[in-house]
UniProtKB/TrEMBL annotation:
Pfam families: Fung_rhodopsin
Organism the protein comes from: Aspergillus cavernicola
Species lineage: Eukaryota, Fungi, Dikarya, Ascomycota, Pezizomycotina
Protein's recorded name: Rhodopsin domain-containing protein
Cellular compartment(s): Membrane
Residue intervals passing through the bilayer: 29-50, 62-85, 126-150
Membrane topology label: Multi-pass membrane protein
Keywords, ordered alphabetically: Membrane, Transmembrane, Transmembrane helix
Family designation: Belongs to the SAT4 family.
Length: 152
């Protein structure tokens, strides 16, 4: 029997239980979700501590990242994970955009400072986003090319 690299997309029927993952795959998925969400929670709690106790200044971007964390925890136990994942991703990106606006509005180019070069910052930011967009675009190409679709 020939095994394709796409076999993971079909449900498995092990001991009467239908699942898309093997038992070890389910365990690995659970460990990775718990690890990444725990790591995110630690960093966001550190951020909240810094913003509330040290700088004594909370802003909208801080609240938005907490909402993103709540959505990321909310999508785990439910069967409709995509809406919660998208909401968490949207809130995280909104928090980043709010931080950008705060940095741009508070930055006065007429005041001498030792900040990063604005031009260099924007080019490095754009290049990272372009690189990740290209990665997202190219990753599924081998799997899509392997699909056996009718050609007309």
């Amino acid at each position: 029997m020939m095994v394709s690299h796409l076999d993971w997309s079909y449900p498995r029927e092990d001991q009467g239980n239908t699942s898309y993952l093997s038992p070890r795959g389910t365990h690995g998925l659970a460990v990775s979700i718990i690890f990444t969400n725990s790591l995110a929670a630690i960093f966001i709690l550190a951020r909240m501590y810094t913003r509330t106790k040290l700088s004594k200044r909370m802003e909208a971007n801080d609240c938005m990242i907490v909402v993103a964390l709540v959505f990321s925890f909310a999508f785990m136990p439910f069967g409709f994970t995509i809406p919660f994942y998208n909401a968490a991703l949207l809130c995280a990106k909104a928090s980043i955009i709010m931080q950008y606006f705060r940095a741009v509005i508070s930055g006065d180019p007429s005041i001498p400072s030792s900040c990063l070069s604005s031009k260099g910052l924007w080019f490095s930011n754009a290049s990272m986003h372009i690189a990740t967009d290209l990665a997202i675009l190219t990753i599924p190409i081998p799997a899509l090319a392997a699909l056996e679709l009718l050609r007309k």
